[in-house]
Specification:
620 residues; 5-stranded parallel beta sheet; 47% helix; alpha/beta
Length: 620
């Protein structure tokens, strides 16, 4: 299998739940978000599919930490001063469970109890398995994170006490016997749920969920106290790593969130969520509800922090460059710079001197694009006197409009007949170079592994470079594969016209028209969900948000988890902004109401002069 085929499969199917601890440890790259979550605080890890939530949680597990070979591994292991218990979402208690329709209130309560019991049973099993891992040090020897010891007598007593409290009858007074009893309970719960028909089966509930055992968090706290006492580590801390909490039913969701507020010091909760969570509104409302920064630390897995995202991407590319190509070239050397860079890092005084490439492009666009010429005139910008501008003036004018000039020059052709789209874009100057590539990948580890892998398959070892054309090809290929995945996303709306990809393309086409229309240095690239947006569109947008096709631009009053979209600001993910006919500058521009975007018809042609038919000065 060649590199491109292998990376393509990785892009579409990689899931850290299916990977071994050794596989995760061998490929893990430290991100700013990982450093924010390792501490002893309750933490909410928020991000779309593929953003690395499961990987980060599994890196906190003792087995993975001990296998991790990294210069900072020991210092981070020292910070993880708790035993981590990874609990993936399960079909028995997640919203994927199809509950019967037309059930009575009594049956609804019974189903709720079984859902909670399934959740609690799975968590208790994971705790016992984690304890067994910690005991392996004394049984087998080896490198164990936070080892513990337990005599045979203490093990027997622990099993007896827990079994009595949890309503279990293990066949042996061993940890394996306790695990088998928990497995049997899960099996009975699953069988009862799958065969659920009438209230006649309510009589079986007490056998499956004995009285008192349907309070999972109390059972968890009891387990921790007993284990700590039996292992003579009364102050030992435990962390539940609860993955994909957006799949949890409301009863599980609320139960766990309430535990963030107060609770015992020995129990830490670290949970992953998609950006939109249907149950967040009820879990965070009311007197005494948990609040961000007071009761938990919210950690967001998208590149709102461009500096942190750039550092993470740089580390990922450097690691892959060394392991797959064996080259020692820096990422900056391998990827080069982009003419569209607006950071100012790559600008020099000579860039605005006569004969420079940047100044020549400004003159060319002034002569060819009448709307740019009017822009300069309105702002009294004299291209012949740029050298007299102060640093602040240059930042607020040249560095603001120049990236858009590069973008427009790559996509538009100016002639005596007017303006049209180029049939062959100058992509080397728009969607290539280190800063642009990193921005397009949104600090998404799954995307980075796929795209970097494809780029490195075309690495020029003589020049220590990835040619610009291959950089663009890799981004475009990833965007097209992501587009294909979006086409298949269900919306549960029934009408085939309501497709996530259709909505994304409508929004992207609007921003593309604004970027290629009458020149403005302040084009919109974000949208706000206003009151005029219908519920079906919001439903599609929620799906797009959790899939990573749309990114939430958080504001000062944004909630920790979104349970509604109204009034919030969003943008199209930068990866989807490199596609033909939907190109959007990779910058955070001003906002426009989503209802206005949907009300405007798309451009009628790719090559007509209608690009300059209107020139809106402001959006609302």
């Amino acid at each position: 299998m060649d590199m491109m085929t292998r990376e393509g499969a990785l892009f579409e199917a990689l899931n850290a739940r299916k990977m071994s601890a050794e596989e995760i440890a061998s490929s893990f790259v430290i991100s700013p978000q990982f450093e924010n979550i390792v501490g002893p605080d309750h933490s909410f890890l928020v991000g779309p599919r593929g953003s690395g939530k499961t990987t980060i949680l599994r890196m906190l597990q003792g087995e993975t930490l001990t296998l991790w070979k990294h210069p900072r591994a020991k210092s981070i292991r020292d910070q993880v001063a708790y035993s981590s218990v990874f609990v993936p979402a399960d079909r028995l208690w997640s919203t994927q469970l199809s509950r019967p329709t037309g059930v009575t209130a009594e049956e609804t309560d019974a189903l709720r109890s079984m859902s909670l019991a399934a959740f609690g049973t799975q968590v208790l099993s994971a705790i016992i398995e984690t304890l067994q891992y910690r005991l392996d040090y004394f049984e087998l020897g080896g490198d164990i994170h936070l080892p513990a010891s337990l005599t045979r007598e203490a093990e027997s007593e622990l099993v007896e006490v827990c079994a009595r409290a949890w309503g279990l009858t293990p066949r042996t007074r061993t940890l394996n016997g306790l695990l088998s009893a928990l497995d049997e309970r899960l099996l009975r719960i699953g069988s009862l749920l799958s065969a659920w028909r009438t209230t006649d089966q309510l009589s079986l509930l007490e056998d499956v969920v004995p009285g008192g055992s349907a309070s999972p968090m109390e059972a968890v706290r009891f387990a921790i106290r007993v284990i700590n006492r039996m292992t003579a580590q009364p102050d030992h801390r435990w962390a539940l790593l609860l993955d994909e909490m957006e799949l949890a039913p409301r009863e599980v969701h609320e139960l766990v969130i309430r535990s963030v507020r107060g609770g015992e010091r020995q129990l830490v909760l670290k949970m992953s969520f998609s950006p939109f969570d249907n149950n967040a509104s009820t879990a965070f409302e009311g007197v005494g509800a948990a609040s961000a920064d007071n009761d938990f630390v919210p950690v967001y897995l998208w590149s709102g922090d461009r500096r942190g995202g750039r550092k993470f991407a740089d580390s990922m590319f450097r690691s892959m460059l060394a392991s797959r190509v064996g080259a020692q070239a820096s990422p900056f050397k391998a990827l080069g710079t982009s003419e569209i860079d607006a950071s100012g890092r790559n600008w020099k005084p000579s860039d605005i001197e006569p004969g420079s490439k940047k100044l020549d492009l400004m003159y060319e666009m002034q002569a060819n694009d009448p709307t740019f010429a009017k822009y300069l005139e309105r702002r009294e910008v004299d291209l012949q006197r740029l050298g007299s501008l102060s640093y602040v003036q240059r930042s607020s004018t040249i560095r603001k409009f120049y990236p858009l000039l590069v973008f427009r020059d790559a996509l538009l052709r100016f002639s005596s007949r007017g303006v049209s789209r180029r049939t062959r874009k100058k992509v080397d100057e728009v969607f290539s170079g280190q800063d642009v590539v990193y921005a397009a990948l949104e600090a998404n580890p799954r995307w980075m592994k796929a795209v970097f892998g494809q780029m490195l398959a075309r690495f020029d070892s003589e020049r220590n470079r990835v040619p610009y054309g291959f950089q663009y090809d890799a981004l475009k290929d990833a965007a097209e594969r992501f587009e294909a995945l979006l086409e298949l996303l269900p919306t549960n709306l029934g009408d085939p016209r309501y497709r996530v990809l259709t909505l994304i393309n409508t929004i992207a086409a609007f921003f593309n028209r604004r970027a290629l229309g009458p020149f403005s240095a302040d084009i919109p690239t974000t949208f706000v969900v206003d009151d005029a947006v219908d519920s079906d569109t919001k439903s599609m947008l929620r799906v797009a948000l959790n899939a990573g096709a749309v990114v939430h631009v958080r504001g000062p009053s944004s909630p920790s988890l979104l349970s509604k979209l109204d009034g919030e600001r969003f943008r199209i993910t930068y990866l989807l902004s490199v596609r033909d006919k939907y190109e959007i500058p990779l910058r955070l521009g001003k906002s426009v109401h989503l209802s206005r975007i949907l009300a405007e018809s798309p451009a009628t042609s790719d090559s007509v002069l209608s690009l300059f038919d209107s020139a809106p000065e402001s959006e609302s």
